[in-house]
Design brief:
335 residues, alpha/beta, Rossmann fold, 4-stranded parallel β-sheet, two-stranded parallel sheet
Length: 335
């Protein structure tokens, strides 16, 4: 029997929608189809990952044993992303597929199911996260906030998922996968320690993070910051005039001095906040651009998961009055 390896995380809330139930039925039918035993691996195999953050984990764990292809580049919003024909070809040609899960890649659902039905091994990297940890926003009752990479301690658990799934696929690489995973997880936890240190240097009254959309709630919980997003969890939602006015009130009353734009979200609403606060006699600046749903430019430090979070942490701390080095944790941030 074909083993369909789409994580149950993707379907935790399937009972909320007939559409999701129908997709589960498709998977069940696909699992009844027969297929030949997997062939012996020869040389490198191919891993396809949806977001840059997922691809980064896969590259570090796989090392030289696999080619890792990321579908979404810098500046790409995974909430809105629809796979192209070439993406479908890459998915169908992959040996292993990793995706975030928790419905982050909602518009890729059909493509992921098609790949699983074709015998590809499809895994959500968030499958080891306990449901008690996951945030469930009121406006998305029954669904979880998918932005777990904003909490480095939680994201480190995705390394274990990738390690174990690669060992299942390529048992001969166990020793390399385990060593790579341990080294990368240690780097992620080092980043978590750095983040705590510099973010705690921000005055308590200024620990308010105002951003374009609600991508930073796990970040806020981990590091003790109040997080306010103009848009909701998904960038498909829209902010109204009343939302902007309420946030202007917050900026003025709390004397918040900086707000942040995001690399994957329009700056229109943030600029409206600045104008509204200025009209009330309170000057607010843009504290910097944060990476929320995508990493920075490939080939740059910020184009890695570590660099992405390091940039965010350092930018936030400095803009809100904290003490953080210009170059970040290892002095590698672009000056």
């Amino acid at each position: 029997m074909r083993n369909i390896l789409i994580s149950q995380n993707f379907w935790r809330c399937a009972n909320l929608s007939a559409f999701a139930i129908a997709l589960m039925v498709c998977l069940a039918v696909a699992s009844l189809q027969s297929c030949s035993a997997p062939s012996q691996m020869q040389g490198q195999y191919t891993i396809v990952a949806t977001t840059g953050m997922v691809a980064d984990v896969a590259r570090h764990v796989a090392g030289d044993r696999a080619e890792v292809i990321g579908l979404m580049g810098s500046g790409v919003d995974p909430h809105l992303y629809k796979p192209t024909r070439s993406d479908i070809d890459r998915l169908l040609g992959a040996d292993v597929i990793f995706y975030n899960g928790l419905l982050l890649e909602g518009k890729m659902t059909d493509a992921l199911i098609r790949a699983a039905t074709a015998g590809r091994k499809v895994h959500a990297v968030t499958e080891l996260l306990d449901e008690q940890y996951l945030l469930e926003p009121e406006e998305f009752a029954g669904l979880y906030d998918p932005h777990v990479w904003m909490d480095p301690a939680a994201w480190a658990k995705t390394v274990d998922v990738v390690r174990d799934k690669l060992i299942e696929h390529d048992p001969d690489g166990r020793e390399e996968y385990e060593a790579n995973a341990a080294a990368y997880a240690a780097d992620v936890l080092k980043l978590d320690t750095y983040a705590k240190q510099v973010l705690e240097s921000v005055p308590q009254s200024q620990r308010v993070l105002v951003t374009a959309h609600d991508a930073f709630n796990y970040f806020g919980r981990r590091f003790g910051y109040e997080v306010v997003g103009i848009q909701g969890i998904s960038t498909e939602s829209e902010a109204g005039v009343q939302d902007i006015e309420q946030l202007v009130d917050l900026l003025v009353q709390r004397q918040i001095k900086a707000v942040f734009v995001e690399s994957t979200v329009s700056q229109r609403n943030i600029k409206a906040l600045l104008a509204g606060a200025k009209a009330r006699g309170h000057d607010v600046v843009i504290g910097g651009e944060l990476f929320s749903d995508a990493m920075g430019t490939p080939g740059m430090y910020e184009g890695t998961y570590l660099g992405m979070i390091d940039h965010n942490v350092t930018t936030i701390a400095r803009a809100l009055g904290g003490d953080a080095p210009h170059g970040g944790m290892n002095g590698e941030l672009a000056q």
